Amino acid sequence: MDADFRGDADHHDGTSDATPGGYADKRRPGEAVFALLMTIGSAVLLWNAYGISGFEALSSPGSVPMATSAVMLISALVILAKTLRMKTAENESLLKDIIPVVVMIMIVLLIAFGILLTPLGFIPTAALFLIISIKLLARRGWPMTLAVALGSLVVIWLVFRIIFTVLLPSGIVPEGEMIQYFRNIFASGAA
Amino acid sequence: MSVLHDFFTVFLQPQLFLLVGLGTFAGVYVGAIPGLSVTMAVSILISFTFSWDVYPAISLMIGIYMGGVYGGSRTAILLNIPGAPSAIATAMDGYPMAKRGEAGTAIGVTTVMSFFGGLVGIAVLALAAPFVSDFALKFQPRDYMLLAVLGILLVGSLSSGSLIKGIFSGALGIGIGAVGMDPLTFTQRFTFDIPLLTQGISFIAVMIGMFGVSEALLQLHNIDLPAVRQKIDKIVPSFGTVKKHLPLSLQTSTIGVLIGALPGTGGDIAALMAYDHAKRVTKNPERKFGEGAIEGLVAPETANNAAVGGAFIPMMTLGIPGDAVTAIMIGALFIHGLNPGPMLMIDQPHMFWFIVGALVTANFFMLLFGLTGIKLFTKIVEIPRAFLIPLIMLLSIVGAYAVNNSITDVYWMLGFGVFGYFMRHYGYPLGPVILGVILSRLLDDNWRRAIISEREDLGRFFGGIFSSPLSTVLLITVVLIFVSQTPLWTKAKARLFKKEATE
């Protein structure tokens, strides 16, 4: 492998271009800002780690946090310096290659999922999420979208609620009664 | 006798047997579908199998691991898209074979060779692990600390090019692992006086975010990549083909086990090294490497499956993961109240032999599923990503929520998902983060134990290191990895190579 290969090991998306990981000798849009944020973040962590127990003793609870955040800060500074020296990749733009609109929408949808999960309950929230995102991503007709979204939701719910017995917020859906209903079906089937 | 009994646990309990089979089946497809990774699947599964007993949970995960390492080769051959990082080398000769219409042969050879490599790996695990764990009892806390540092460094330096970014990621992981109450003194660390942080950050939320959501977000870039159809005919390879490549496959399996057993290095690196080895030792390949040489398939595929067994050696004996997936497995064992390390081998040898048995079973299932079900396979690989991505995201959310029934974990997971997405874009490897999180506690505890036993004296600490050959070797290795990245080394290397060139 090329020693300067910066790609992520999970690079298996079939695109041989820069996504993900970037180039060895060019700076991607936003990379310098990210490196700067990492540097600031590391500095804050180091300051915080110093506050844990200072230089009291080598075995104090703060020693490893201080050492790690110091390593973070040093490496972040080196990365920042290296990044700033590189030329910007001209064929890329932040909006096209780093965070396209579709990615932003999906992130918003995910956050909305988290916010609605407890009050609304798992089933309605997941149904909304799947319908909106599949409609958005696949751009198929409504029948196909609804069939895939709701069909897979039913399978997921059955598998995880019943086989894996994962507890999910029931919210406005009378989930307990539904499970009892299924149990009754299986019970009468077995009898 | 009890060893045999433990070994056959999987075979004696139909439920476990089926779970291994199911896991392997799922693993083959998860590995094969570009965009789904084994690391992703195993990290999401930990939370779902949380309420299960430890045996069934481990059975399922082992199946997925074994199947997934193999499954990546399918798409590498058919589409030139490695389904998993460990199949990157497979694509180099597999795809040219498929283009010549020999996809069936390529898949057949790959399957049989993966099976062979897997067996070698497991055999070495079964033979070597008990010795390693005996040896590990003599390890001092400082050795554990050095091993943990070494593991994180190796992942950072080998799995992607930029070591400095790997170091940053590893340190970040250790930092994340340290958040919350210090277990020894109950001092708060990195909590910024926020009550939410005193409990620490759930490492499962970190894992699912980094390997589930961030990967899914990244796949949004390739949503319109068309699925490709391929015609496949005869699969089962002839005995002659297998026999001819047996010597090579033994060598590459050995490479695989060794690389796999190094803390922090897994199947992807093993496969690349084996490919390199095959190129050097094969004098007269039927076809050139890169144009469809069977040796180019045999080498990486034996090595990456042999690395599975290898990766379990440090995981089971030292509690130090061999790669990202074993890091997650360690997390799973933690959750089930087990503490991987030399004491696990002594207190609960049945656990070890059970895992060996499950690996063997998974290996046989892999052979079975690898040589059958091609029709189904082509159908599944054609599922549009537009359907898959929302489902992965949904599973990630459910998975993050399920461990503690806590919505906070979902937010952590999403936060790390978005963060990981940017890290991937800018070339920061994620493997070291996970290794750091998992090893944070071990590193911290052992550092403090080591330095307390040396009466807080750094001089005595280093004196201790140099009085033990093992500690010395570990320290030198760690230092060498660092030095190899400084300008000093580059200069020295340039000078050396210049000399060679002029001679």
TrEMBL record, chain A:
Residues 1-24 are annotated as: Disordered. The keyword Membrane applies. The keyword Ubl conjugation does not apply. The chain crosses the membrane at residues 32-50, 62-81, 93-115, 121-138, 145-168. Residues 1-15 have a biased composition (Basic and acidic residues). Residues 34-169 form the DUF1468 domain. Keywords: Membrane, Transmembrane, Transmembrane helix. This is Tripartite tricarboxylate transporter TctB family protein. It comes from the Bacteria. Pfam families: TctB (PF07331). InterPro entries: DUF1468.
UniProtKB/TrEMBL annotation, chain B:
It comes from the Bacteria. This is Putative tricarboxylic transport membrane protein. The chain crosses the membrane at residues 16-42, 54-72, 106-132, 144-176, 196-218, 320-339, 351-374, 386-404, 410-440, 461-483. PANTHER family: TRICARBOXYLIC TRANSPORT PROTEIN. The keyword Transmembrane applies. The keyword Nuclease does not apply. Residues 18-435 form the DUF112 domain. Keywords: Membrane, Transmembrane, Transmembrane helix.
